[in-house]
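Appendix C reproduces, verbatim, an entry submitted by the partner laboratory led by Prof. M.T., so that reviewers can inspect both the input and the predicted structure.
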Amino acid sequence: MSLYISIDPGNKKCGLLLADFQSRTVIEAGISSLNKFSDLVAVWNKNYQIKKIIIGDGTNCNYIENELKRKNCLNLNYVNEKGSTLRARFRYWEIWPPNYFLSWLPKEMLFPPENLDAIVALVLLEDFLQYKFNWPETVDIKTWL
């Protein structure tokens, strides 16, 4: 397994994603408060052999980096997150296509029913590795507060 963690940092919460590059599959994903994310990343880092941790270079990325270094999570890499939220909206509808009636509307008019932070983390990882990942039906977007 070649596991990656991807983080979409924000002001109060962040999107987290654990994915396997070899199988091109998302393993776990969710949204975490800023005071809990580093604990979860540290557990993933301890339980799995994480190859790299990808962090969006926007809001709060320095705080994220400092918290991860305090937890001894290294091998951090930044990726440009410009436009990632808009791209995550489109990626959401690729993973979970809209029903028949909504599918006739332009994707620009559709707003996903869920918080997109975990999908933004997916987009950031896909940007970094230049490859699209599969999102299995068994993987739900969790909330860690």
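The beta strands are 3-8, 13-20, 25-33, 50-56, 76-79, 141-144. Additional entries are available on request from the coordinating office.
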